[in-house]
Design a protein that fits this description.
2 strands; 10 helices; DNA-binding; 66% helix; Arc Repressor Mutant, subunit A; 3% strand; 2 domains; Four Helix Bundle (Hemerythrin (Met), subunit A); mainly alpha; two-stranded antiparallel sheet; homodimer
Chain lengths: 246, 246
DNA sequence: TCACATTTGTCCGTATGTATC
DNA sequence: AGATACATACGGACAAATGTG
């Protein structure tokens, strides 16, 4: 996978379970194995690859942690192809926050800049179906607000829909990863209805500006919106956060 | 680690190796275990935690892939606390790009936009050490060119160094992931010395503009440079790309 | 250079927990 | 409830790698 990542890693010690994992990964990349499909059981895989069960176990563990498969126990259980990579990325980002490798300030800056770029691209490439999706999203959010319910889920989805409308997978993957982290923060903070209402208002205006192809207006709205979000999150930046045991 | 991540994930039965992994993670978060320190061997950990060696192995595997430790074999080997989490995130982004079948066209567009934003931040946040790293990079590249050797590796590294100079880890991770794929393409295309020379020239000018804090000049140079790269890659945009074997 | 000790990597056999039918 | 199929976990054993004397 990642050879010569650094020049300092000289010898390529190839561990069998990594070979097995890479082989299965390759089958997924090549669409031979598709999401939803079941992999053979550990015992069968061990036999087919001609390795021990322990080796297969560690290969599957690697794939599970890397977000390629999920594993279920019990009858008719076993490994299933399922893409959870973006969740894994946000998990690792959260770990990175904990060991102070990445700060919330860095994240919000990156988010602001990348979303601005994305929005600019959306104006040029947006299709009718995207606008409908966005309008549907804000309509549902507004409905919740009217019933005094916070619309956190919809408000996060708004930004991933926006990234989707850029018709660029790189933008989509990056934005969705970032929003997964933002969502995690928000779930801990627990926004109130008034805040949620404010967010939805911005989203409504942004959708309108996109539909009318008003580029600078849309970008200004987004910037103002995200700056407000950043200010709301600011108090939590340096907050001592003990991990979630339960 | 990740309880109630999504509402749809019903009950997270706790697996023993996850408990072991979480315990060690917590010790790292709490600075009880610091980078560089050695963990006990698998056998010792198994005894101390009162679990089997296989369970410890899977826990260590999880920590390894999550970027908390590295593992070495042989005498005086074993697990060592080492933070490689950002590399792990980059690897996952790389996987995400592959699994989502990101096209070269999407990649070059996103790269152009994101690097422009990054460079803007570089101008504001660059430190002396960054400029020295960049100068060293182009000097080595120039040396290779003078000897009629292509400097692909240095030319890719240039852009990750640039992202590093933005002093924003999120930018760095994203750019590093993108450049990994770009490098993958270039290694297959095999640029000639003349092309490589052209690239190095741009890099030299960009470094100079950064050192002189000439913002618009630097950004214009980068844009022109990346547009030329895009044009060179254009013939390969629709080429069937089988992913990386090794 | 040559053992030697340590530690991970791999395999086997077995037992238990867990989910499905 | 019982049978089945699967992951999870334990213990023992040997092979391979690697630093040390």
């Amino acid at each position: 996978m990642n050879k010569q990542k650094t020049i300092f890693d000289p010898i390529k010690r190839t561990r069998t379970f990594e070979d097995v994992s890479d082989k299965i990964k390759q089958l997924i990349f090549d669409d031979v194995l598709k999401p939803g499909e079941k992999l053979p059981s550990e015992a069968q895989l061990a036999q087919q690859f001609g390795v021990g069960r322990q080796t297969v176990r560690e290969a599957l563990r690697l794939l599970e942690i890397s977000g390629f498969i999920t594993i279920h126990r019990g009858g008719s259980g076993g490994p299933i192809i399922k893409d959870t990579i973006l969740n894994r990325i946000s998990d690792l980002f959260l770990d990175a926050f904990r060991i102070k490798k990445v700060t919330l300030a860095e994240l919000t800056v990156a988010r602001l800049e990348i979303e601005k770029v994305v929005l600019n691209y959306v104006i040029d490439n947006v299709e009718e179906s995207d606008i409908i999706s966005l309008q549907k999203n804000v309509a549902e959010a507004r409905k919740k607000i009217d019933n005094k319910i916070v619309a956190t889920e919809e408000n996060i989805q708004f930004h991933t829909l926006l990234a989707q409308a850029s018709r660029n997978h790189v933008f989509f993957i990056v934005v969705e990863s970032i929003m997964a982290i933002v969502g995690d923060f928000l779930s801990r903070i627990g926004p109130d209805v008034k805040t949620s209402d404010n967010v939805v208002s911005y989203h409504e205006d942004i959708v309108k500006a996109i539909a009318e192809k008003k580029r600078t207006k849309a970008i200004n709205l987004l910037e103002q919106h995200l700056l407000e979000v950043r200010n709301r999150l600011k108090p939590f930046v340096n907050q001592k956060k003990e991990s979630n045991s339960k």
